[in-house]
Specification:
By secondary structure, this protein is an alpha+beta fold. It contains seven helices and seven strands; from the N terminus they run αβαβββαβααββαα. The chain has helices at 2-8, 42-50, 90-93, 111-123, 143-152, 178-181, 184-192; strands at 34-39, 57-64, 67-72, 86-89, 99-105, 164-168, 171-175. The strands form two sheets. Strands 4-3-2-1-5 form a five-stranded antiparallel β-sheet. The protein has a two-stranded antiparallel sheet with strand order 6-7. 38% of the residues are buried. Mean pLDDT is 80; it is low at 1-22 and 187-195.
Length: 195
């Protein structure tokens, strides 16, 4: 399970604030936007080998009185050593010790639908990390499963049926990776880019 967990979600290091320029576009963000990051850990590299999106982790943006935050389901992060769905400032999510790049993606849906997805994600805070990577078990979540379920409960299937089938050390899993929940237009752009 540990190897599969390492493959599917990125573990990251200590906090360091991103540059002001990196967060300059936050004016155009909306609660419910997805935020993808490319981590720098060994686990991130494993995810990137299986997922050709260029991203190893995903969360959902929430605008609060205290600023922009991300609800996400990380594993192996050193800050509290407890693998649960959590909410944290965007600056922590994208700090330079955790990631080399990030991208915020606006989904094609109304503000009301996006807000309902955010409320769903917030209700999952504190739930355990899904180290079984089971899409059928809604008592725990991994990163892509969380954002997928948040929108699925609003009638939107971000994956449009895309799944990854991973076989590692004789264990076979069907799961969602960041590539599976990137909107179709971005997925098509990635395929069109020269390697």
């Amino acid at each position: 399970k540990l190897i599969i967990a390492s493959l599917l979600c990125a573990a990251c290091g200590r906090q360091q604030a991103p540059s002001a320029a990196a967060l300059a576009d936050s004016i155009s963000w909306r609660s419910g936007d997805l935020i993808f990051r490319t981590g720098i850990s060994m686990e991130s590299r494993l995810v990137l080998n299986a997922d050709k999106s260029g991203f190893s982790h995903v969360g959902i943006l929430v605008h609060t009185q205290g600023g922009w935050r991300v609800v996400h389901a990380p594993t192996g992060e050193p800050d509290n050593n407890i693998d649960i769905v959590k909410i944290e400032p965007v600056a922590h999510f994208v700090n330079q010790q955790r990631c080399v790049r990030f991208k915020v993606v606006r989904l094609s849906c109304s503000d009301a639908v996006a807000e309902k997805a955010v409320r769903f994600a917030i209700q999952q805070i504190g739930r355990p990390f899904d180290d079984d990577f089971s899409l059928a078990d809604t008592t725990k979540y991994y990163c892509t499963e969380l954002v997928w379920q948040a929108y699925r409960h609003q009638g939107i299937d971000l994956s449009q049926g895309h799944r990854h089938h991973i076989s590692l050390l004789g264990i076979r899993k069907t799961c969602l990776l960041p590539q599976d929940v990137i909107p179709t237009t971005l997925r098509e752009q990635k395929k069109a880019q020269p390697q």
